[in-house]
Design brief:
By secondary structure, the protein is mostly beta strands. Helices cover 12% and strands 32% of the residues. It has helices spanning 4-7, 26-32, 47-54, and strands at 12-17, 37-40, 59-61, 78-83, 86-91, 108-110, 118-122, 125-129, 143-149, 154-160. The strands form 2 sheets. Strands 3-2-1-9-10 form a 5-stranded mixed sheet, with helices on one face.
């Protein structure tokens, strides 16, 4: 018999996307409906993406290498988020990370830049790239992620959009 803890509903759902490059697809908007919060891991390319996402849920976004101009100066290169009992670290390029996520007690490192989704767990830290949600790069799928947050865990799910 499963414990009731495993059957409990998530305390919140977080939409995670990256690399929209000025294109917020209707399929992405539909996939994000009902989330409590949105994380954008950079390369928005335009403030219009932030405005559109904010109509769905509160947004935390970091600056990507393509985010330029006055509006982008308001974005930080990294963000630390506390989600329930969990610490998340958000940046655009994973190679720019200048800390040890395990020592800093981060549960998840969220990043973008490559346009290809990935999930890997190393030393108790989940490294999550939701992939590119905007224009297609190479033959990579268009994707984003949803985090279901529980008291004791976060369950990530990559969603490949049918575009």
């Amino acid at each position: 018999m499963k414990s009731s803890q495993n059957n409990s509903a998530p305390t919140q759902r977080i939409g995670v996307l990256s690399d929209t490059h000025g294109l917020l697809r209707p399929e992405a908007i539909n996939a994000l409906k009902g989330v409590d919060q949105i994380i954008h891991a950079g390369d928005l390319d335009t403030p219009d993406i932030l405005k559109a996402l904010a109509k769905i849920a509160p947004v935390t976004a970091v600056k990507g290498n393509m985010d330029r101009g006055g509006w982008a100066r308001k974005l930080q290169k990294t963000e630390v988020m506390e989600v329930g009992n969990h610490l998340l670290y958000v940046l655009h390029e994973i190679h720019a990370m200048d800390l040890d996520p395990e020592a800093a007690e981060f549960r998840i490192v969220i990043f973008g830049h490559s346009h290809m989704h990935s999930m890997a767990r190393r030393n108790g830290v989940l490294y999550l790239n939701p992939g590119g949600a905007g224009y297609r790069r190479f033959n990579y799928p268009i994707s984003l992620a949803i985090l279901s947050v529980y008291e004791d865990r976060i369950e990530p799910r990559i969603i490949e959009l049918d575009v």
